[in-house]
Amino acid sequence: MREKKNKAGVEEIRRRSMFSEAMARLVRNKTAMFGFFILVTVVLLCLAADIISPGGYDQQDMKSRFVAPGLEHIFGTDHLGRSMLARVLYGGRNSLLIGFAATVLGAAAGIILGTISAYYGNMVDNIIMRILDVFNSIPNLLLAIVISSALGSGKVNTIIAVGISTIPGFARTVRGPILAIMGMDYIEAARTIDAKDSRIMFRHLLPNVLSPIIVQFTLGTAISILCVSSLSFLGMGIQPPEPEWGALLSYGRQYLNYYPYLCTVPGVAIALIVFSMNLFGDGLRDALDPRLKN
Amino acid sequence: MNQNNNILSIKDLSVHYITKETGICKAVNKFSLDIKKGEAIGLVGETGAGKTTVALSILKLLQTPPGKVVSGEIFYKGKDILKMNNSEIRKIRGEEISMIFQDPMTALNPIDSVGKQIAEVIYLHKKVSKREAMKLAADALELVGIPKERMNEYPNQFSGGMKQRVVIATALACSPQLLLADEPTTALDVTIQAQVLDLMNELKKNLNTSLLLITHDLGVVAEMCDRVAIMYAGEIVEIGPVKSIFRNPQHPYTRGLFEALPSNKSNSKRLKQIDGLMPDPTNLPPYCKFEPRCSKGSKGCGAQCPEFIEVSEGHWVRCHLAGEKWG
Amino acid sequence: MLRYTIKRIIMMIPVLLGVTIILFFIQALTPGNPADVALGQDAAEADKAAWISEHGLDDPIVVQYGKYMYKIITKGDFGTSYTNGKPITGELISHWPTTIKLALMSLLMACIIGILLGILAAMKRNTWIDSIARVFSILGVSMPNFWFAMLLIMLFSLKLKWLPVSGSYGPMYWILPIATLGILNAAGIMRFTRAAMLDNSQQDFVRTARAKGQSERMVIWHHILGNAMIPITTCIGQYLIGALAGAIIIEQIFSLPGLGSLMMTAINQRDYPLLRGSVLLVAVSTSVIFLLIDLSYAAIDPRVKARFKSITKSGKLSKKQVQKN
């Protein structure tokens, strides 16, 4: 018994030191830290929307319509004289929040499904994987569009629609590595001492697939944000007057010829946030799994 | 030593691996070696001694970066290989000097049939059509004991020993003057090892090929080689005829290697080991590299690098204590 | 090989059945009355009821599903559109070519740019060429396609006036939509190609090829790229599926009459049969693409081919295989 405890302790130390090593690698990675810096800046700006634009996103000023970006209105104003700065910041809140929440939802469901599937194998695995095959045969965005069209627009519905479309990705991320680990001796050992299934899953299996989950989560959030804004761009998801980056772009499209800044501001915002997440996510992958690095 | 007899002559070769993380790793230091026509030389040493680096340097196959030849010359038939341009060295690779790599599992391209892989080297160097090259490849396969019906099969359909035969057939397809064999049997089962060695021996005799055999197996050296060079931390510490070295090893490291072999004469139950590890190649001592592990060392050993001393004809050793009687 | 293909095609059937079930399930969850949209809010309740029963929407969902599947299997009939009463099969046939053309042309462009740039970046690793290629790849992956499409419109249509903004009246109208998806997907394919090339250039057999005296050109194009094509094929298949989905949005922006436009109409009009048919068509295409990826593996990689043969013969390794190993 004591030996087992010792071993667990050693395992714990090994895991912790691997983690701190990975973090050290991440901090040394300049591009990743650059991405992290942009990410944090944009997120903080969006969170501070109340402070930066206390008037809210819907404050109209018919006297200053279509004001080009300048000193008074950094990002200009729209056809109702609303400040684009406020709309982009509040819109960012929606995009980021919905994208993040959807990924959390998809990750939770996907991880549970993937783990159960790999752990119980045979019939259970077969059924779950075939169901995921069905979802897999419809491209992510299209799946989100179909679900969203059924549920209707709104924040919660969009979170559900986008979240469901990310489930198969997470399930597969988790299932592969767990299947590989399942064959290892220490899982067999845990089974022979009659450890509970849930204990084996949470204590032995999941910690070992933490790295791919973290990476998939970062890159997945970027994809979800793209998905949310695509939905809104198509007129689903978040709908005006509530701002969202994709919705803002859709709105600005009609003024593309005369007031291109209406599109530029939200367009750059989406690209920037996804760009920074990709930089950071790639850095995370390199740091957590140095073998994959090229 | 007649210069004209040498097919290959390496002079003062130094190779460094330079990386940001570890700094300068001195893999090969002032390495000199002559290989005569038709001669088989064994290059023995433990992992990390720089044996493979030497072989790769001979064919200019070092990956640069991180590898870099810092100094030295490698004369092949009087021409310095290191100064050759790409097309000159390409004519030599595979035709005049060929190499057998350590791991047959990964040395073959998985998407080409074995026949095509052998034919590739023939087509590159002989003035034949692709079809004729395939025919010659079939002959080469037969030569290593694989029926030519199997030449359209892919590496995944062959076992490790069979793959190594294919590798040997490729290496010998153009009847090279010099064969570099980098641990050709290490990755194989013991039973297959003997077969592969016999095969190489036979082919070598028939083709009168010179051989540089890299190994850490002294038994293989005894069976295959005329001379043997013992390598330690990037330099040769002892070199001489196989008989002379096996009967009368002079360098403490060589002795350590022999003592680590199981023998039916000694009655001790445990094999002897050489204590300690090879010095860190990024931080080599400026004196005898073996001094930290040497049990015989005297005070002078920690002061300067020993020079080669000839202890008997053709038997050279790099040790301050060479020639002295061992207790 | 043929048996494997047939087996895979048979395995598609449950997946596609699953898709139809999910689509029906989603439809059952959808609030609102399709008759409201088809006949207008103000239509008489009796008319609406008649419309509902005419389209069989008052049957239990299971019965509706059974009728729907029966028609598809026996007659290849996907029903008629709620909005214009046209048969859906015909609607799909007339809109499908636009989408597949956009997806395939953009993928072709993406492959050419992406694979060539990827090889270049890998061969010039850690030089400025590599750096630029990497920035391009990560920017391309991060750029929403609809925003990139608008940027191209701003530059080439509005500012330079070289190309039309939108519509479908000739080859000129196709350039921007194809370029949008082509350039963005090229970024992803480039990134993947670079990684696969670097990975394979470290392999022992590459050194073997060099030791044979093979030229650097052949080492790169045959030995390294030949093996790198195995993962790259998967990547290309994934991007083809992505291009199908992307085409749906891009068609909207450039007003191309493809499946995407059809789908958006179906969603706005609550035209369930039309939406079902369109999504089903995409699902079939995706499944076929997955199959093609797997089959092309066998064409490139003899290891996979051997496995296919042994699987289809007996489910286990065949005798011949065992002897050989």
TrEMBL record, chain A:
Q: Which UniProt keyword terms apply here?
A: Cell membrane, Membrane, Transmembrane, Transmembrane helix, Transport
Protein's cellular compartments: Cell membrane
Q: Cross-referenced PANTHER family, in alphabetical order? A: D,D-DIPEPTIDE TRANSPORT SYSTEM PERMEASE PROTEIN DDPC-RELATED, OLIGOPEPTIDE TRANSPORT SYSTEM PERMEASE PROTEIN APPC
Name of protein: Peptide/nickel transport system permease protein
Q: Where is the ABC transmembrane type-1 domain?
A: 92-281
Q: What is the species listed in this Swiss-Prot or TrEMBL entry?
A: Ruminiclostridium sufflavum DSM 19573
What does the record list as GO biological process? transmembrane transport
Task: Say yes or no: keyword Transport present.
Answer: yes
The record's annotation in Gene3D superfamilies points to:
MetI-like (1.10.3720.10)
Q: Which family does it belong to?
A: Belongs to the binding-protein-dependent transport system permease family.
Highest taxon, organism lineage:
Bacteria
What PROSITE patterns does the annotation carry? ABC_TM1 (PS50928)
- Membrane-crossing residue ranges in chain numbering: 96-119, 209-238, 258-281
User: Sorted alphabetically, which InterPro entries does this protein's record hold?
Assistant: BP-dependent_transpt_permease, MetI-like, MetI-like_sf, OppC_N
**Which cellular component, as a GO term, is one annotated location?**
plasma membrane
Q: Its topology with respect to the membrane? A: Multi-pass membrane protein
From TrEMBL, chain B:
> What Gene Ontology molecular-function terms does this entry list?
ATP binding; ATP hydrolysis activity
What InterPro entries would the database entry show?
A: AAA+_ATPase, ABC_Ni/Peptide_Import, ABC_transporter-like_ATP-bd, ABC_transporter-like_CS, Oligopep_ABC_C, P-loop_NTPase
Keyword Transmembrane present in the record's keywords: the answer is no
Pfam families xref list = ABC_tran, oligo_HPY
**CDD domains from the UniProt entry:** ABC_NikE_OppD_transporters
Q: Where in the cell is it found?
A: Cell membrane
Q: Which SUPFAM superfamilies match?
A: P-loop containing nucleoside triphosphate hydrolases
Provide this UniProt record's keywords sorted from A to Z.
ATP-binding, Cell membrane, Membrane, Nucleotide-binding, Transport
Swiss-Prot/TrEMBL GO biological process terms: peptide transport
Q: What membrane topology is given?
A: Peripheral membrane protein
Domain ABC transporter: residue ranges: 10-258
Q: Which family, according to the similarity comment?
A: Belongs to the ABC transporter superfamily.
**Name of the molecule in the record:** Peptide/nickel transport system ATP-binding protein
This chain's source organism reads Ruminiclostridium sufflavum DSM 19573
TrEMBL record, chain C:
Q: How does it sit in the membrane?
A: Multi-pass membrane protein
All residue ranges annotated as the ABC transmembrane type-1 domain in the record? 96-293
Could you tell me the keywords of this UniProt record?
Cell membrane, Membrane, Transmembrane, Transmembrane helix, Transport
**Please, which domain of life does this record's source organism belong to?**
Bacteria
Recorded hits in InterPro entries, A to Z, give: BPD_transp_1_N (IPR045621), MetI-like (IPR000515), MetI-like_sf (IPR035906)
Compartment(s) of residence? Cell membrane
Q: Name one GO biological process term.
A: transmembrane transport
Q: GO CC terms on record? A: plasma membrane
**Transport keyword on record:** yes
- What family is reported? Belongs to the binding-protein-dependent transport system permease family.
Full protein name: Peptide/nickel transport system permease protein
